[in-house]
Amino acid sequence: MRALPLSPVHSGGPLLVALLSSLAFFFEPLSGDWLAYDRYAIEGWETWRLLTGNLVHTNGYHLLLNLAGLTLLWALHGDYYRIGRFFKVLIWCCLGTSGGLYILSQDLIWYAGLSGALHGLFTWGACMDIRQGLKSGWLLLIGVAIKIGYEQVNGSSNDVASLIDATVAVDAHLYGAVCGVALFILMWRLTKTRS
């Protein structure tokens, strides 16, 4: 069993994201008005929302669910989270999630939350496990694929939607997960090329 990656090198990135998300929450509704993913605002060149929309949340339950997910991912894959690498993966997963929503889910106008990017971190970490020879990485990847497939066919849980006071953007989970796998493949190919 792995020990928790308590070193600041491994925990600094997730702690900073938790802090930024918490600060954004405490400055609601200002942060929601200026930072949330909003298709019309993005079309008006407020492109920062492609990144910052992932840091704001609809309510305290939404924030706590996402912070719990971030904590679990850190406990599971934190050994891979060097600060620079963590932010590269997270930022690209945020942009991939928002970009996917903008290009492929044009009916979605407003979005907030970290769950899409967390799905990307999850799949990236599962791929890293596979690269390290851990069979559990395959189980994690298959499990998240089944979850995302279920969401695409049946939608999200009404209980979760009620809890976070918003419709769960299941497409964000799909785009984030695909982005995480794509990032892993790209990073792996670049590493092999340099070797």
Brief write-up:
With 195 residues, the protein is an all-alpha fold.
* Sequence stretches where pLDDT stays below 50 over 5 or more residues: none
Biggest sheet descriptor: 2 strands, antiparallel
On the 0 to 100 scale, the average pLDDT is 94
Q: What's the Cα radius of gyration?
A: 16 Å
Query: Percentage of helical residues?
Result: over 70%
What order do the helices and strands come in, and which of them pair?
Layout lengths: L7 H19 L3 H6 L1 E2 H5 L5 H4 L7 H18 L5 H22 L5 E2 L3 H17 L4 H19 L3 H7 L5 H25 L1
Antiparallel strand pairs: 1-2
Helix pairs in contact: 1-5, 1-6, 5-7, 6-7, 6-10, 7-8, 7-10, 8-10
Write up what this structure looks like:
The protein has 195 residues and is an all-alpha fold. Helices cover 73% and strands 2% of the residues. It has a two-stranded antiparallel sheet with strand order 1-2. Helix 1 crosses helix 6 (83-104), helix 6 (83-104) packs across helix 7 (115-131) and helix 8 runs antiparallel to helix 10. 36% of the residues are buried. The mean pLDDT is 94.
Structural key phrases:
195 residues, mainly alpha, 10 helices, 2% strand, globular
